[in-house]
Amino acid sequence: AKKEGRGSICFYQQHYEQDLKLQLKVQRELPNALKHHELILYYQPIVSAQGRQLKKVEILIRWQSSVLGFVSPATFIPIAEETSFIFDIERLVIEETFKHAAQYGKENRLIYSINISPKHFESDNFVTYLNEKMLQTGVSSQQIELEITERNLIMQQDAAQKRIEHLKSLGFRIAIDDFGTGYSAISYIKQFAFDTLKMDREFIREMLGNRRDLALTHSIIRMAHNLGMQVVAEGVELEEQAHTLANFGCDYLQGYLYGKPQPLQGVIQAPERQVFH
Ligand code: C2E
Ligand code: CA
Ligand code: CA
Ligand code: CA
């Protein structure tokens, strides 16, 4: 047993060192991602639970590095958050999304959901910047949803609350992302008026095999509705999950069952015809 223990320490250490090496490479290459236009916007469909019609899209960034190959956002976003690159990356995301929404939004009537990191969300000119983009492009703020996580709210709660209220007064929608993965989720939904609650993939994955997860899923949906929020279930992979969630009154479904993230450019034009069954 002792031997096994040492082996696994070695294994973890090796992984840790590889991780560090990758982190350093990512840090070094990140400026080139922007300079050489290696970042691409993907979108993932979000469908209504009842009619299974395309209603929203979540914008997810992709990095195809000429040096490192494909790098996952789960790897480079946290590194970008340590530097000011997160601003450049997310402004690129916002600009491209608004461009798409300006071109197709009136017709497709989709809601574009964008992930905003805490550092960016907290920055002084974030609201001004968004407002300017809206005015410049003529995009309706009601078609833009900002996904924030509990990490966005930990800092100064009063400031966060003001910011959320300001954004909502401009018409933007706010979603609480990855709900259920943090510590004090309940106190946050008590304090902040979100439009949408995104239930984390963990619940959905365990839902069918675990009665407690099933009960929790159902309760979260009811609680959200009682608080005036709509619910998006993340990571829906099976028809049985979709069916159960629809029966629970869940509003929207997102997951591989309806499509993996795919390139945004020029793809979605006529959502009425895109029904997923
Ligand atoms: P997230 O916001 O929770 O996004 C959902 C992730 O779940 C995406 O991973 C998506 O591809 C994956 N996913 C969706 N449906 C399924 C499913 O049915 N099964 C499974 N196994 N996975 C599914 P992705 O695109 O790799 O993004 C990872 C994370 O990177 C995102 O998690 C988000 O936190 C972050 N991210 C991506 N783009 C941005 C961005 O522009 N800004 C910020 N701040 N974060 C971003
Ligand atoms: Ca998200
Ligand atoms: Ca999420
Ligand atoms: Ca998640």
TrEMBL record:
Protein name from the UniProt record: Diguanylate cyclase (GGDEF) domain-containing protein
Taxonomic superkingdom: Bacteria
Domain EAL: 23-275
Span within the parent record: 408 to 684 of 687
